[in-house]
Design brief:
The structure holds three protein chains of three kinds. In chain B, 70% of the residues lie in helices and 2% in strands. By secondary structure, chain B is an all-alpha fold. In chain C, 48% of the residues are buried. Classes of the chains: A alpha/beta, B mainly alpha, C alpha/beta.
């Protein structure tokens, strides 16, 4: 999927030409603030390069295309691939059946390792077993906390969604919130439901759930606005993705509600919002780490026979809290899209 | 040729002169109520009123002016796109690329302005050109190949989806655009595309004003101009329209470009309301626009419809979407309720048009 | 036929001798298929030129060339003596050639008055406020239709709700109104009943008397002979007969139209195969193509 998208990018040549022409003609229209010029130059993480034989690793996720969070996972994976001298084949598909087909594709390519997400474990069971049978080491990441061991994966890198939800719930107890609104942007996604359930479990106040259409931001905004109006006792909005949190901040602002905002996951705009105080804190599951570690572990397994967690325990990459106290250290990394 | 001259010539040789009040008895004047029912938007108007009254009763917060403003805002972001989509549908075509087209436009504006460190208006203008270009391409391919618009625009839908992601990633290194809110021209553009104003204590979004203004303009164009006449004609019977001299290719291509304009406008709203755009958004919205047009009484096969119907169609969508939240119901049922409403509206339309044309 | 219009047009309309539209050995090929070949035809003002032929004889192709829908591939098309190539129907219309198609070229869902003015709408006001002059258009459409003997109480009704004859007359009235110098009528009576056919023939005569050149496409020689001044019979894409009214009788015309010699052979064969009593079959001269046969859908 990703590769076809890239080949299509050739078709943008005219658009680039138009943009270039516009640059020349409208040179006088430069913005004196913001923009690319103002963006600080940030170098990539580099940690030397391994001299082990070249190997190929496939990472297959259930990510929707064009999502910031998943892009960070991919960046982590790419960093590890560069360091470990391995070729990374990244592919993604939201539908479980198509994701399984992509795994089969990797098996057919005889890759040296597979990193896979198990968002819908039962649908992936058969094809994962095939990979294991073919002697390809498989590790799990992000989703599949309860199934990875049973399906014969070597290791698992991720956040226990329920645990991170519970952690957020506990934290809310200390902020004095009474009524939390948990905003779910994809209806019926297991990991998102687990987060909300986790919050509800540990939070002593009342928890209400709200579904929004994550593909349509104006709709997200008015739906949260509507809910805040409908129930004025809500004093905490918990969102499950960074862009949703930023939109929720606008809704809160507009309704004049006293609600604070806590969210799962980070991006660089969110960091600024935490700095500015419009968002209280974020629970980071460190997606970069998930991508990086899963690929790196396959390299270690191949070259040194190590496996993280000893095949018994998952490697937890979160929850890590980011709030005003530690936001400055995280900010520099987030600006590069790696945190 | 001069029309008045011909008219005069025609009057000089009346072959069957008859008194002005003569009736031939084949047709009778239809009662006002029936003629009113024959309007394509009446079904959806009744439906929208029903839904509104329903939520007024069952969801107390809806009675608040601020809530109505919020519902109208949600409706307007659907409605602004539903208008050109409806005109296109009356003209006999679909545009499945309308949803991602919105995001493509927002991404273009944001990236051009940010990457070149330009005044944001430069990005806004480039995005307009790009959006109109996408529309033109859709229309041109359609006329050139003679393929159904479903296929052609499905192609552009997929291409745009891929290009949105790939180009954003290629240029920004991320899958979302950078925040442009501190750049020159941002506040001006925000004032145009996504500001709000106070009516008493209620804050109303400017998109609501644009939505209604565009709807009024579209209604006027559709019913009172040559171009509007052509839209009905190319949708109703393309070959006949061509035979009597209607420029079919111009009409269809310009309709696609109109959808491009709508996508640009909504895209700019999203950009200036939320400062950044995620490249994967917008997928699936095209069906909501089409649904609003169909609920609004536009014939799926073309040739019939109105611009005011989709306004009520979009309002119905916004009302239900927010009404369920205001009512505090279990949101799990939202999609099911929406589906029932869609079927219901279609059935009302069918019933009304049958009742009106029965002779 | 209940209506007979046997006027002598040559006496009422002075002939200036110059054809408005002229075909000179014109032909059209669609790839390998030659639909029309070497057809010559001239249309004079105030005259009715009838083009007859069976299904697939090339009548539709002929119309499409003159009305600008298709372009000829051989020979020439002359308007007022100048060779032309119409690339769109609009160009033909601008040259004063209006066509009333078999399918009437109306948009069924649109109101009668909008159909009447479709493609040539009246407007008023300066741009960008230029708008349809609806009142004038409705009034004009109503007057023109009344002149044609069609009285509609509601011009807002979709034209699809009118009867076939009414729609035909709306289409003819439209062409006449828009200043056509040449009116092409494609099988106007094919789908009509006897009485409505008479009405349509009356309007053909009327258009002729107004000085229009009329091309009347039909496969009914009786209808053709009632109003025609010149008769061209097409067979398999070529001209089989081209004769003026005083050179041909209805019987001859019918005979040509019905296939003449071929028909005689067919009659003979039928007699041999099934023992049909040939005496009971109509004589060659009586063989006609019924008016109510299905409209010619092929080229």
């Amino acid at each position: 999927m990703n590769r076809t998208a890239r080949s299509r990018s050739r078709k943008i040549a005219p658009a680039v030409a138009v943009a270039a022409a516009a640059t020349l003609i409208l040179a006088g229209c430069s913005s004196s603030s913001g923009g690319k010029k103002a963006e600080e130059e940030a170098g990539d993480i580099s940690a030397g390069k391994a001299d082990t034989p070249r190997m190929t690793v496939a990472m297959i996720t259930h990510a929707p295309s064009g999502d910031t969070f998943w892009d960070t996972i991919r960046k982590g994976a790419e960093a590890a691939a560069a360091k470990d001298n391995l070729k990374l084949i990244y592919s993604n598909d939201e539908s479980a059946a198509d994701q399984a087909a992509l795994v089969q594709n990797a098996i057919d390519q005889k890759v040296d390792g597979i990193a896979v997400t198990l968002a819908k474990p039962d649908a992936m069971k058969e094809v994962v077993a095939k990979a294991v049978k073919a002697g390809i080491p498989v590790v799990g990441l992000n989703a599949g906390m309860s199934d990875w061991k049973e399906q014969g994966l070597l290791s698992f890198f991720g956040q226990d969604e329920a645990v991170s939800g519970q952690a957020l719930g506990t934290k809310l107890n200390s902020t004095g919130a009474q009524h939390a609104l948990c905003v779910v942007q994809v209806q019926g996604a297991v990991n998102l439901e687990q987060r909300c359930a986790g919050v509800e479990k540990n939070f002593k106040g009342k928890t209400t759930k709200l579904y929004v259409n994550g593909a349509d931001m104006p709709s997200v905004k008015s739906t949260i606005t509507a809910k805040l109006k409908q129930d004025s006792s809500i004093d905490e909005v918990v969102t499950l993705a960074a862009p949703i949190a930023l939109t929720a901040a606008q809704s809160v602002d507009e309704t004049g509600s006293k609600a604070k905002i806590a969210t799962f996951d980070l991006n660089k705009e969110l960091i600024s919002a935490i700095k500015g105080g419009s968002i209280e804190f974020a629970v980071d599951q460190q997606p970069y780490l998930q991508g990086y570690l899963s690929v790196d572990s396959l390299w270690l397994y191949k070259n040194n026979g190590n496996y993280s967690g000893g095949g018994e325990a998952p490697i937890l990459t979160g929850p890590a809290f980011v709030d005003k106290a530690n936001v400055d250290t995280v900010a520099a990394f987030a600006a590069k899209g790696t945190r | 040729m001069s029309m008045t001259q011909q008219a005069a010539a025609a009057v000089t040789t009346p072959p069957a002169p008859g008194p002005g009040t003569e009736k031939d008895g084949r047709t009778t004047e239809r009662p006002l109520a029936i003629r009113l029912l024959a309007r394509p938007e009446i079904g959806v108007f009744l439906g929208a009123v029903a839904v509104w009254v329903f939520f007024l009763i069952s969801a107390p917060p809806v009675r608040d002016g601020g809530s109505m403003a919020n519902i109208l805002y949600q409706s307007s972001t659907i409605g602004i796109m539903a208008l050109p989509v409806a005109l296109l549908m009356i003209g006999g075509e679909f545009d499945l690329s309308a949803g991602v087209g919105v995001i493509a436009s927002a991404l273009t504006a944001s990236m051009v302005a940010y990457q070149l460190s330009m005044n944001v208006w430069v990005g806004v203008i480039v995005a307009l050109v790009a959006s109109l270009g996408i529309g033109f391409l859709n229309g041109w391919l359609l006329m050139r190949t003679g393929l159904p618009s479903f296929l052609v625009t499905l192609g552009t839908f997929l291409i745009l989806q891929g290009v949105n992601l790939a180009v954003t990633k290629l240029i920004t290194g991320n899958v979302a655009t950078d925040d442009i809110s501190d750049m020159d021209g941002f506040s001006q553009a925000k004032a145009l595309f996504s500001s709000s104003f106070d009516v008493g204590v209620v804050q109303v979004k400017i998109t609501v004003v644009w939505w209604l203004a565009f709807a009024a303009l579209a209604t006027w164009v559709l019913l009172r101009t040559k171009y509007g006449n052509w839209i009905f004609a190319v949708g109703g019977n393309k070959d006949s329209a061509r035979a009597v001299g209607v420029p079919v290719a111009f009409t269809k291509i310009s309709l696609f470009m109109l959808v491009g304009f709508g996508a640009w406008f909504v895209g700019m709203h999203q950009l200036f309301a939320f400062n950044t755009v995620q490249s994967g958004e917008g997928v699936g919205q095209e069906l909501i626009y089409i649904a609003a047009a169909v609920i609004g009484g536009c014939l799926l096969t073309g040739g019939s419809g109105s611009a005011i119907g989709p306004v009520f169609g979009a309002f119905m969508f916004g009302m239900v979407q927010q009404g369920i939240v205001y009512a505090g119901w279990n949101p799990d049922w939202f999609k099911a309720f929406l589906g029932v409403m869609l079927l219901g509206a279609t059935l009302i339309n069918l019933w009304v048009s049958r009742a009106a044309t029965r002779r | 036929m209940t209506t007979t219009i046997e006027t002598q047009p040559a006496e009422t309309v002075p002939e200036d001798g110059k054809p408005v539209v002229e075909l000179k050995a014109t032909g059209k090929s669609y790839g390998n298929i030659r639909a029309l070949h070497g057809v010559s035809l001239s249309v004079h003002p105030g005259k009715v030129t009838c083009v007859l032929g069976d299904n697939g004889a090339g009548k539709s192709t002929l119309i499409k060339i003159i009305s600008g829908l298709h372009q000829h591939t051989e020979g020439g098309l002359l308007v007022d003596g100048r060779p032309v190539h119409f690339s769109t129907p609009r160009e033909a219309l601008d040259a004063g050639i209006a066509t009333v198609y078999q399918d009437l070229a109306v948009v069924p869902l649109m109101p009668v008055w909008r159909n009447f003015f479709l493609g040539s709408e009246m407007t008023k006001g300066p741009w960008p406020l230029r708008r349809l002059d609806i009142e004038t258009m409705k009034k004009t459409a109503d007057e023109e239709l009344r002149n044609m003997g069609i009285v509609l109480d509601d011009l807002e009704q979709p034209i699809g709700t009118l009867s076939g004859g009414q729609r035909q007359c709306v289409a003819i009235a439209r062409a006449v109104y828009f200043g056509a110098r040449v009116l092409i009528l494609d099988e106007p009576t094919a789908a009509l009943g006897v009485k409505q056919s008479g009405v349509v023939l009356k309007y053909i005569a009327m258009a002729r008397d107004r000085g229009l050149g009329v091309i009347f496409i039909t496969h009914n020689p009786h209808h053709a002979y009632m109003v025609g001044d010149h008769f061209s019979v097409l067979r398999l894409g070529t001209l089989e007969l081209s004769a003026s009214r005083d050179e041909v009788s209805l019987e001859e015309l019918t005979n040509h139209m019905a296939g003449g010699a071929e028909l005689a052979a067919l009659k003979h064969e039928l007699a041999q195969v099934s023992g049909v009593d040939t005496e009971e079959l109509p004589e060659e001269g009586d063989v006609t193509t019924p008016a109510a046969t299905a409209p010619d859908g092929s080229a």
